[in-house]
Amino acid sequence: MKGFFVTGTDTSVGKTLTASAITLALKGTYWKPVESGDSDYAQVKEWVGLPSEHFVPPMYALKASLSPDQAAQQENIRIDTRTFKMPQTSNTLIVEGAGGIFTPLNETECMIDVIKKFGLPVIVVSRGTLGTINHSLMTIEILRQRNIEIKGIVFSGELNPDNQVAIQQKGKVKILFHLPQFNSVTQNTLHAWNELHQQAVIEALT
Q1: Domain housing 158
Q2: pLDDT tens, position by position, for the chain (206 residues)?
Q3: CATH of the domain at 108
Q4: Is 32 a catalytic residue?
Q5: Of 2, 27, 32, 45, which one is the catalytic site residue?
Q6: Which 3-state string (H, E, C) describes the chain?
């Protein structure tokens, strides 16, 4: 199955917006297996605006805005990754992780274990501002240590070009594209951006 796994250098870095942009550009299928707090599944459906068959509900939709293992504990649930199976789709599958690669899912497993299980090329979403070089290079290094393919980096929000150059050179990774800091994100905002950048996103991911 053709697809990508979207992870980030940390939480609230722009993974959901990036996954939305890719889903829209590729007319793909979006799936976030585990979410906690506000529903990214509902948010992506609203932003992307494709028919319902392009969106797969999460396996775990946890209420508390905590790490998935802590949110699950509050509901007396244990996240069991053995039950995780990628949905079948003829579209490109866009899987969004929760938090960063070491976000815990249960007492022994983290998000990187799910990434390894699925075997999809990884898109790393990074901030473009101060601190991003360290976080990005550490994420790249750990993924490579686990022999996980990295498709490339997406920068989200304000971007310092020197940071981009440093990550590209030191991390030896491809920069896929940059999502700017929007004043507000709506379906109209995302579709307007997609009209200008869809072809570049497609080319970056092929």
Answers
A1: 3-204
A2: 699 999 999 888 999 999 999 999 999 999 999 999 989 999 999 999 999 999 999 999 999 999 999 999 999 999 999 999 999 999 999 999 999 999 999 999 999 999 999 999 999 999 988 889 999 999 999 999 999 999 999 999 999 999 999 999 999 999 999 999 898 999 999 999 999 999 999 999 99
A3: 3.40.50.300
A4: yes
A5: 32
A6: CCEEEEEECCCCCCHHHHHHHHHHHHCCEEECCEEECCCHHHHHHHHHCCCHHHEECCCEEECCCCCHHHHHHHCCCCCCHHHCCCCCCCCCEEEEEEEECCCECCCCCEHHHHHHHHCCCEEEEEEECCCHHHHHHHHHHHHHHCCCCEEEEEEEEEECHHHHHHHHHHHCCCEEEEECCCCCCCHHHHHHHHHHHHHHHHHHCC
